[in-house]
């Protein structure tokens, strides 16, 4: 028995749901196939224990596509922010703190405590980065191809640097303070895997905005996982069908064109187009090994996927005290003492080991949003990267080590935190299982179309792997849907 | 460059008074023993013995060997039964022809791929996507071609009751050999361990003496190949060496018959189906006896292509060759002309149906 649809979307994640919403709105018969038992399995939120609401993978939002919110008012209405613009706070060893906030004067004062020259350099550094980011925005926000010649001469010079330098080298050439450099470098690894590699992710992050605020990092009310259910109900209301527990086994391809999908249950669905939220590697190698070109498959197989991200989530019976009152409450804390910490961690993770000092980002959503934890209790989430994707020891061995390491560091930062821990949850790269190779400059500034298209006619990619930098944005879904809907 | 001798080298050297050698796929081979034309004619009147160790052969073994070959090549290897072979092509991602060869099934999980030119890197890379191992072989190979080939093989004590493309492993008076019929000229091939090669040569030479067998070099087998309409990679056409790109198309080389239309899984199929090459490789008969250089070909005064290679066919008593011509001028029977020298009178040529000349039928004892 088989059903017929215009488009099948693989994966009910943010991008898959966004694509489905657009396609359904355009009058297409759309089915979303989600392998997990429930919608938003990984992109939603979960209850760590009674009353503690935590996100599954993303802990903040910073790249959400404004166009998606504009096109779907129900999502815009439903999405409330506990904080729209978190300050970025670097936590060093020995209690050193640097606070990078929207307020330039405060930031300069905070940096001056570490390095006077850095404080002087900060305003023009930040303004220059933001200026170039705005000029670059169209290539990241729309399907348009990027033309570096259209940049002003000073922007072009900065762009040339960013394109060719590693984030570490670029930051190192500008600042003295190790804590400042490490804090900034953490973001360069935004969801990417070859870090500290290109400096372009810093520019890409500066090109994002939340609620019209450039470079903001926001914390949605009810955890960062609150977005997915909003998108899901929007897609369903627009007419899309969502099937859960529907893991796709393979794509049906006839003479180079996709004709449908076969589920692991054996059921087949016929459709004229397939949008896959999986990475190019997992889509072609995993679902179309019999149809995708051999040399391309080998090229995908050869790309080493070595470092990824983990999320450690704690339920606490009392408030943590991370920066000893030296940072605003609405902060995300970067734990990385020196640039070397970031570089050494990257090398260790690539070698399949857990870094001795792991950089991570802490958010305490319950300090800003009472809805995610019972009164007096708190939720603390740590985005940990880089960690090895496939450690030789296996994640079942590494997971407790990682947890112990993170809790040990947290206890140093906020003494007395350990007895308050009521529950711990750890998501490893194994749980996410869709890392997408290296962050190449081609991927960072190449046209969307090239990242979305595949050699199989009717098969498009729409997941995080299509984004210039893997992030929760919905943009890949929107642009992929537009490409598909544009087809007869 | 050093000599990489085949296992038959001592016998070949002894029979090669002209000391005429050539290198092919890295092997040092006799180009002609007594004269290419005479050797080629002997393949039509009596029988020849040719060293074919130079052919590239690789074993593919493993649980997914059949699945791999079905993806790699233009015919369904899973439908082959052990002891049988078929000819197929392999294409790159874009549908460009990378190679052509024989695929022989040795067992459930064991195949041999044999081809005129190696394409090791491409096949080894693609094989990494499957549970399949590649194994090289250093066996020697000897071809017996001619109307008396079957009689000679039988006289030598081998069971020659093989259909074309079939093969069988045999125990032949103390040595292990594989007898196959994979060649283009209706003959037999004997594959043996390198250590047994001289013995194999001697046995065939002895059994064949009564039938007038003589050794033939690469120049003679090249003539036979061309007469049979078999274009060889690198000499007659440039195979694809890249991962994508749709040239040369199997259509341009008229190799569609090696593509199974029912077999839809092979790599490059979409590109192959979409290709409509402007040029074809066509067999040409020239109204002259000397080989024609790479000159332009004209149809009613307008240039339509050029000669790629030609040689004198002693059986046809004229020059034959391959030319690249516009698709509209590739139909057999199309009359063309060329200028052998600047200012000379045009000489006629004609697009030939292939093969130029069919293989002579076997003569029973």
Topology:
The complex is a heterodimer of chains A (488) and B (365).
Chain A: E1 2-10, H1 14-25, E2 30-33, E3 45-49, E4 52-55, H2 66-71, H3 73-78, E5 81-83, E6 87-91, E7 97-100, H4 104-112, H5 116-141, H6 153-164, H7 167-172, H8 178-188, H9 200-207, E8 209-210, E9 213-214, E10 219-220, H10 227-237, E11 241-243, E12 248-254, E13 257-263, E14 268-276, H11 280-287, H12 294-302, E15 307-316, E16 331-335, H13 339-350, E17 360-363, E18 378-388, H14 395-413, E19 421-427, H15 429-432, H16 441-445, H17 448-452, E20 459-461, H18 475-485
Parallel strand pairs in A: 1-2, 1-14, 2-11, 6-16, 14-20
Antiparallel strand pairs in A: 3-4, 5-10, 6-7, 8-9, 12-13, 13-14, 15-18, 15-19, 16-17, 17-18
Chain B: H1 9-14, E1 21-24, E2 27-30, H2 36-45, E3 47-51, E4 56-61, H3 65-72, E5 85-91, E6 97-107, E7 110-115, H4 120-127, E8 133-136, E9 140-145, H5 149-155, E10 167-172, E11 175-180, E12 188-192, H6 197-209, E13 213-215, H7 218-227, H8 269-274, E14 279-286, E15 296-299, E16 302-313, E17 318-326, E18 335-338, E19 347-351
Parallel strand pairs in B: 3-13
Antiparallel strand pairs in B: 1-2, 3-9, 4-7, 4-8, 5-6, 6-7, 9-12, 10-11, 11-12, 14-17, 14-19, 15-16, 16-17, 18-19
What can you see in these coordinates?
The complex is a heterodimer of chains A (488) and B (365). Chain A is built from 18 helices and 20 strands. In chain A, the strands form five sheets. In chain A, strands 1, 2, 11, 12, 13, 14 and 20 form a seven-stranded mixed beta sheet that branches. Chain A has a seven-stranded mixed beta sheet with strand order 7-6-16-17-18-15-19, with helices on both faces. Chain A is of the alpha/beta class and 488 residues long. The longest helix of chain A has 26 residues, at 116-141. Chain B has helices at residues 9-14, 36-45, 65-72, 120-127, 149-155, 197-209, 218-227, 269-274, and strands at residues 21-24, 27-30, 47-51, 56-61, 85-91, 97-107, 110-115, 133-136, 140-145, 167-172, 175-180, 188-192, 213-215, 279-286, 296-299, 302-313, 318-326, 335-338, 347-351. In chain B, 19% of the residues lie in helices and 32% in strands. In chain B, helix 2 (36-45) crosses helix 7 (218-227). Chain B starts with 8 loop residues before the first helix and ends in a 14-residue tail after the last strand. The longest helix of chain B has 13 residues, at 197-209. Chain B is globular. Chain B has 365 residues and is α+β, with helices and mostly antiparallel strands. Chain B has a six-stranded mixed beta sheet with strand order 10-11-12-9-3-13, sandwiched between helices. A six-stranded antiparallel beta sheet of chain B has the order 15-16-17-14-19-18. The mean pLDDT of chain B is 94.
């Amino acid at each position: 028995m088989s059903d017929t649809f215009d488009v099948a979307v693989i994966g009910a994640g943010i991008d898959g749901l966004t694509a489905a919403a657009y396609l359904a709105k355009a009058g297409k018969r759309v089915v979303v196939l989600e392998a997990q038992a429930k919608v938003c399995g990984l992109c939603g939120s979960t209850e760590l224990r009674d009353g503690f609401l935590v996100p599954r993978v993303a802990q903040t939002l910073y790249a959400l596509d404004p166009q998606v919110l504009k096109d779907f008012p129900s999502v815009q209405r439903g999405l409330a922010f506990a904080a729209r613009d978190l300050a970025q706070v670097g936590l060093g060893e020995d209690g050193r703190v640097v606070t990078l906030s929207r307020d330039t004067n405060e930031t300069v004062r905070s940096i001056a405590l570490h390095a006077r020259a850095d404080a002087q350099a900060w305003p023009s550094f930040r303004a220059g980065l933001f200026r170039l980011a705005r000029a670059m925005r169209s290539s990241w926000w729309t399907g348009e191809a990027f033309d570096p010649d259209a940049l002003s001469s000073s922007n072009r010079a900065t762009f040339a640097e960013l394109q060719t330098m590693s984030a570490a080298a670029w930051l190192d050439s500008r600042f003295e303070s190790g804590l400042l450099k490490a804090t900034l470098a953490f973001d360069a690894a935004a969801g990417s895997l070859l870090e500290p590699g290109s400096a372009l992710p810093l520019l890409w992050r500066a090109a994002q905005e939340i609620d019209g605020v450039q470079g903001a990092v926001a914390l949605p009310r009810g955890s960062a996982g609150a977005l997915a259910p909003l998108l899901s109900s929007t897609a369903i209301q627009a007419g899309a069908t969502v099937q859960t527990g529907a893991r796709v086994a393979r794509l049906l391809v006839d003479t180079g064109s996709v004709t449908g999908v076969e589920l692991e249950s054996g059921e087949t669905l016929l459709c004229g187009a397939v949008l896959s939220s999986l990475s190019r590697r997992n889509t072609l190698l995993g679902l179309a090994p019999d149809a995708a070109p051999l040399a391309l498959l080998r090229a995908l197989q050869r790309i080493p996927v070595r470092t990824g991200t983990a999320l450690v989530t704690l339920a606490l019976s009392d408030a943590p005290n991370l920066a000893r009152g030296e940072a605003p409450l609405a902060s995300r804390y970067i734990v990385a003492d020196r640039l070397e910490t970031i570089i050494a961690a990257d090398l260790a993770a690539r070698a399949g080991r857990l870094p001795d000092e792991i950089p991570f980002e802490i958010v305490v959503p319950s300090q800003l949003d009472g809805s995610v934890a019972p009164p007096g209790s708190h939720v603390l989430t740590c985005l940990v990267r880089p960690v090895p994707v496939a450690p030789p020891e296996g994640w079942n061995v590494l997971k407790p080590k990682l947890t112990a390491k993170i809790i040990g560091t947290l206890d140093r930062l906020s003494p007395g935190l350990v007895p308050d821990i009521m529950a711990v949850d750890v998501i490893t790269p194994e749980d996410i299982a869709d890392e997408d190779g290296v962050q190449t400059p081609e991927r960072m500034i190449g046209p969307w179309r090239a990242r979305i298209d595949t050699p199989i006619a009717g098969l498009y990619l729409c997941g995080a792997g299509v984004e210039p930098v893997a992030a929760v944005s919905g943009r890949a879904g929107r642009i992929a849907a537009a490409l598909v809907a544009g087809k007869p | 460059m050093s000599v990489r001798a085949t296992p038959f080298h001592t016998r070949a050297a002894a029979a090669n008074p002209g000391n005429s050698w050539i290198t092919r796929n890295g092997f040092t081979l006799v180009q002609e023993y007594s004269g290419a034309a005479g050797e080629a004619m002997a393949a039509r009147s009596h029988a020849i013995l040719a060293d074919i160790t130079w052919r590239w052969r690789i074993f593919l073994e493993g649980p997914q060997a059949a699945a791999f070959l079905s993806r790699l090549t233009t015919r369904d290897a899973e439908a082959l039964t052990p002891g049988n072979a078929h000819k197929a092509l392999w294409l790159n991602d874009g549908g460009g022809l990378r190679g052509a060869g024989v695929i022989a099934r040795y067992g459930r999980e064991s195949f041999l791929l044999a081809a005129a030119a190696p394409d090791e890197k491409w096949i080894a890379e693609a094989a990494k996507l499957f549970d399949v191992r590649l194994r090289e072989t250093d066996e020697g190979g000897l071809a017996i071609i001619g109307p008396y080939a079957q009689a000679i093989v039988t006289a030598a004590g081998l069971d020659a009751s093989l259909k074309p493309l079939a093969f069988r492993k045999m125990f032949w008076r103390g040595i292990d050999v594989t007898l196959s019929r994979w060649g283009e000229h209706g003959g037999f091939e004997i594959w043996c361990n390198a250590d047994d090669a001289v013995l194999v040569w001697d046995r065939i030479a002895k059994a064949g003496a009564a039938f007038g067998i003589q050794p033939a070099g690469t120049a003679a087998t090249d003539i036979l190949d061309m007469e049979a309409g078999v274009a060889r990679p690198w000499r007659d056409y440039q195979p694809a060496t890249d991962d994508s790109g749709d040239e040369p198309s199997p259509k341009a080389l008229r190799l569609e018959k090696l593509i199974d239309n029912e077999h839809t899984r092979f790599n490059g199929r979409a590109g192959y189906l979409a290709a409509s090459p402007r040029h074809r490789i066509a067999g040409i008969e020239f109204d002259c006896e000397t080989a024609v250089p790479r000159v332009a070909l004209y149809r009613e005064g307008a240039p339509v292509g050029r000669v790629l290679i030609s040689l004198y066919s002693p059986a046809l008593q004229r020059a034959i060759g391959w030319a690249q011509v516009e698709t509209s001028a590739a139909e057999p029977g199309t009359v063309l002309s060329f200028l052998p020298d600047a200012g000379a009178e045009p000489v006629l040529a004609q697009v030939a149906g292939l093969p130029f000349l069919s293989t002579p039928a076997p003569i029973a004892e």
